[in-house]
Specification:
The protein folds into 3 domains: 44 residues, no CATH class; 338 residues, Up-down Bundle (Outer membrane efflux proteins (OEP)); 73 residues. The protein starts with a helix and ends in a 7-residue tail after the last helix. Helix 8 runs antiparallel to helix 9. With 460 residues, it is α+β, with helices and mostly antiparallel strands. Strand 3 and strand 4 form a beta hairpin. Helices cover 67% and strands 14% of the residues. A 4-stranded antiparallel β-sheet has the order 1-2-3-4, with no helix packed on it.
Length: 460
């Protein structure tokens, strides 16, 4: 039944995607499979778990067994003659050692647990970073495509105007300066096209670096989106960021691990107590001398090792650990300051983008009316072609600024969610619904497909 469901979901997904552009979720799926940073963070968790197991294993019973078989030749020097005996020898030893008191081993185990928690949080941070990177680079491509499209539209319109003005000049209805003005503006726009093309190539390469796939086309941001300001006070969100941001939490565990390492080094001055149980069987004695019978020896012992002097090594190791602890604390302070700045910038810029979108939409209406008025005035000989070009230039500029404000809102909103540590795949689905051609049904099909293929990754 699951196989049938998977096939149906896959077919629905393929049919829905046939002839369509890649959307945010499909790009995210590609990035999940390709991102080396996320995969590296997953491997680090396994390393941390292995290190914790090693540290625990040092405190558990250590059992060793050894055996020895030998061919021996013994010569006895006598007064009259030497006597040589050849015989075989064997030894069997089984030993069990159990730590009773060893503080370095205990603190090392505590340190390894903190390191594992640190790696787990770094993995969550890598997942959240990937979510934001997908949004940032995806909309970076859309922004570059729009900028290039606006310049090409302006070029096409300017070329048409140049053709019209050239005909009017041929009929001596306009001045040569009008022709020169349009030609100059056309050259400026063409130069801007070259720069915009370079930006688009760079943006696409940044997205390809993330997914390792060249996306032919991307779904565009649709019209009619309601851009809302982020609610709440910035001070409250800063507290959320301090408590929820996984990178900051990971750094706190790094401090705990470094502190445990200091305890490990300090405790190397303390005695180590160990229980030892040994069974020993042999038929050879000192220097493999031959015994008349096999000998069995059973030993139960308490071993106490008291470190007295190690040439100052332990002291220097303790100092090194203390300095590393200080570095980790300074690193956390730097991360905290950066987090406060990042959260504040994203919060303020996201809300500012909403106001900027509304203001730019009004400005676009004004510039369009101004351009139409200038064209009308030019047709009656009241305005010059330079006035028309300036109005047209201002209108296209406002169109670019409106598109940039919309993309800025999306990116800053996701940047804010990443900073406070709450960004998730649900946020990605929400943004994906803002794209052309997206629907709730398509999203359901994708979730079914992800569940069946085992690729759904939820961030806790």
């Amino acid at each position: 039944m699951k196989t049938v469901k998977f096939i149906l979901a896959a077919l629905l997904f393929v049919i829905s995607r046939t002839g369509m552009s890649d959307d945010l979720l499909s790009v995210y799926e590609q990035a999940l499979d390709a991102d080396p940073h996320l995969k590296a963070s997953e491997v680090k968790i396994k390393i941390g778990n292995a290190q914790k197991g090693q540290a625990l294993g040092q405190m558990l019973p250590q059992i060793t067994a050894s055996t020895n078989w030998s061919a021996n030749s013994q010569t006895l020097n006598g007064l009259t003659r030497d006597v040589t005996n050849s015989y075989g020898g064997s030894r069997y030893v089984v030993s069990i050692n159990q730590t009773l008191l060893d503080f370095p081993k205990y603190w090392n185990w505590e340190r390894s647990k903190a390191v594992e928690s640190q790696y787990t949080l770094e993995n969550i941070q890598a997942q959240q970073t990937l979510l934001f990177d997908v949004v940032e680079k995806y909309f970076g491509v859309l922004e570059a495509e729009d900028e290039l499209s606006f310049y090409r539209s302006e070029t096409e319109l300017t070329e048409q105007q140049l053709e019209q003005i050239q005909k009017l000049f041929d009929r001596q209805l306009v001045k040569i300066t009008d022709v020169y003005a349009i030609e100059a503006r056309l050259d400026q726009v063409k130069a801007s096209i070259i720069e915009a093309e370079a930006k688009l190539v760079t943006a696409k390469e940044a997205l390809r670096e993330l997914t390792s796939i060249n996306s032919a086309s991307l779904a565009k941001l649709r019209d009619g989106i309601e851009y809302k300001e982020l609610e709440g006070k910035l001070e409250d969100w800063l507290e959320v960021a301090k408590n929820e941001n996984p990178a900051l939490a990971a750094q706190q565990y790094a401090i705990v691990a470094a502190d445990r390492d200091v305890s490990t080094q300090k405790s190397k001055h303390l005695p180590v107590v160990e229980l030892q149980l040994t069974y020993y069987n042999t038929n050879t004695g000192f220097q493999s001398s031959r015994l008349t019978t096999d000998t069995d020896i059973e030993v139960a012992a308490i071993n106490v090792n008291v470190p007295v002097f190690s040439g100052g090594t332990t002291t220097k190791q303790t100092q090194e650990a203390q300095h590393k602890l200080t570095l980790n604390k300074l690193s956390k302070e730097a991360q905290l300051r950066e987090l406060i700045k990042e959260t504040s910038d994203a919060f303020l810029n996201s809300n500012a983008s909403v106001k900027r979108i509304k203001a730019t939409q009004k400005a676009l209406e004004s510039t369009r009316k101004s351009r139409e008025a200038m064209e009308t005035g030019f047709s009656y000989g009241v305005e010059t072609i330079s006035d028309v070009l300036n109005a047209q230039k201002e209108e296209f500029k406002t169109m670019r600024e409106l598109a940039q404000a919309k993309y800025g809102y999306v990116k800053n909103r996701m940047r804010f969610l990443q900073a406070i540590g709450t960004i998730s795949e649900e946020n990605l689905v929400e943004v994906n619904n803002w794209l052309e051609g997206s629907s709730s049904q398509n999203n359901i099909n994708k979730e079914d497909l992800k569940m069946e293929t085992g690729k759904s990754r939820k961030i806790n």
